[in-house]
Amino acid sequence: MSSETQGAAASPEAPGKAAGTAVGQAVTGDGAVPGDLRMTRLLWPFMLASAVGLVPFTIYSTFLVPIAHAADGGVAALGQLRGLGGLAALAVGTALAPLIDRVRKEWAAAGGLAVLAASAALGASGDFLMLAAFCLLVGAGTAVLNPALTAAAADRFDNDAAAGRAATLITATQSLTALLAAPLVALPALLWGWQGDLWAVAAISSVLALYFLLRGRRRHDADGEAAESADRVEKPGYLESFRLLGALPGVVPLLLVAMLRTAAFMGYLAYLAAFYDDRFGLGPETFAVVWTLSGTSFFLGNLFAGRLLSADRPRISSERLMALALLVALSALVCVFFTESLFLALPLTALVGAGHATVAACVTTLLVRRCGSLRGTALSINAAGMSFGVFLGAGLGGVGLSLGGYPGTSVVLGGLTLVALVLARTVARSTPPPTTD
């Protein structure tokens, strides 16, 4: 047993966690990590719900032009409305972070899904004000849904390696959905239009919300005496949760790594299409291949990094792999904006995606392992920080582009990645030394 695990067991929240493990989790007994197929059979409702959470904004982005026509607004104005979702995610994710660990995570997920269902129904009206409410509610709903699902999936297992792998399976599902969602929503829209897509999201989200509500109630009834004992354990107060989280070794720099990584990657993606058009003359149709390449490399990087980190004896630690992946991502990002060869730019684009995906898997794994019963709070703040990172990256990337062209963008975004790399070294130095029982 590591000192990190011992510290979690000694925390005031640990008895509740232990009780939950005894009565409601899919324990692994000997500490082995189940295979991905077995985990998928256990976690498929969580994975499905996480996939659905990405669909509303995918519909909004894919059909932005017809939505703008329906709302009698300009494309730019409708595009800017999506920023409201990011602001809502930042505010709600931060404000409600401690509450994720104070309620049943299935019920928190049900609440997030219910908000998504309501937002989709409002957005289907096509009214400008309703679309503004749609963007706000989608941001708020996913700010609760995603960390609740990730933490609930991790809580299904009683050892750090399996819990970390469960969490990265949820994030891998989200990256796969981001890759496939556009064609998947475009095909049904041929039959019923973008409004029909939103009504379908509303229906599916409502069914899933009911499922998680009943699932949480069944677990509450099944836990019986052990759950009541866990509930009697004194939990930290609202502000105390933030203080306790900040006191955990390396957690604050880890959250900053996630925010800066997201800023660098999303800023890079914001101007990637324009770069390929200006430098290599690739139009939107051809650039779709590049986008698929980037998305596929991100999905595979997230999937395989999560599996590597869940091994009984991984060949490389999460902290070291995170630093190495940031170095690869930094080098590839800077080089891609300077290259004059399309055949060199394509593999560099794949490396940027794989590097950032690996960092994302490392961050999720480390938060799950280091934060113990505060993992819900940590994952919620992490999601809020990444929402802020999206705006930070797009804004700073634009500043770099206006001042120095694409080399200026590479310098600005590379600088963000470099700061993340320095913080990753701080995370590695904060690792508690292993101890023996």
Automatic annotation (TrEMBL):
<dbReference type="InterPro" id="IPR036259">
    <property type="entry name" value="MFS_trans_sf"/>
</dbReference>
<keyword id="KW-1003">Cell membrane</keyword>
<feature type="domain" description="Major facilitator superfamily (MFS) profile">
    <location>
        <begin position="37"/>
        <end position="432"/>
    </location>
</feature>
<protein>
    <submittedName>
        <fullName>MFS family arabinose efflux permease</fullName>
    </submittedName>
</protein>
<feature type="transmembrane region" description="Helical">
    <location>
        <begin position="345"/>
        <end position="367"/>
    </location>
</feature>
<dbReference type="GO" id="GO:0022857">
    <property type="term" value="F:transmembrane transporter activity"/>
</dbReference>
<feature type="transmembrane region" description="Helical">
    <location>
        <begin position="198"/>
        <end position="214"/>
    </location>
</feature>
<feature type="transmembrane region" description="Helical">
    <location>
        <begin position="83"/>
        <end position="100"/>
    </location>
</feature>
<feature type="transmembrane region" description="Helical">
    <location>
        <begin position="166"/>
        <end position="192"/>
    </location>
</feature>
<feature type="transmembrane region" description="Helical">
    <location>
        <begin position="288"/>
        <end position="309"/>
    </location>
</feature>
<keyword id="KW-1133">Transmembrane helix</keyword>
<feature type="transmembrane region" description="Helical">
    <location>
        <begin position="251"/>
        <end position="276"/>
    </location>
</feature>
<feature type="transmembrane region" description="Helical">
    <location>
        <begin position="405"/>
        <end position="424"/>
    </location>
</feature>
<feature type="transmembrane region" description="Helical">
    <location>
        <begin position="321"/>
        <end position="339"/>
    </location>
</feature>
<feature type="transmembrane region" description="Helical">
    <location>
        <begin position="107"/>
        <end position="125"/>
    </location>
</feature>
<feature type="region of interest" description="Disordered">
    <location>
        <begin position="1"/>
        <end position="21"/>
    </location>
</feature>
<feature type="transmembrane region" description="Helical">
    <location>
        <begin position="379"/>
        <end position="399"/>
    </location>
</feature>
<feature type="transmembrane region" description="Helical">
    <location>
        <begin position="131"/>
        <end position="154"/>
    </location>
</feature>
<dbReference type="InterPro" id="IPR011701">
    <property type="entry name" value="MFS"/>
</dbReference>
<feature type="transmembrane region" description="Helical">
    <location>
        <begin position="42"/>
        <end position="63"/>
    </location>
</feature>
<keyword id="KW-0812">Transmembrane</keyword>
<feature type="compositionally biased region" description="Low complexity">
    <location>
        <begin position="7"/>
        <end position="21"/>
    </location>
</feature>
<dbReference type="InterPro" id="IPR020846">
    <property type="entry name" value="MFS_dom"/>
</dbReference>
<dbReference type="Pfam" id="PF07690">
    <property type="entry name" value="MFS_1"/>
</dbReference>
<keyword id="KW-0472">Membrane</keyword>
<dbReference type="InterPro" id="IPR050189">
    <property type="entry name" value="MFS_Efflux_Transporters"/>
</dbReference>
<dbReference type="GO" id="GO:0005886">
    <property type="term" value="C:plasma membrane"/>
</dbReference>
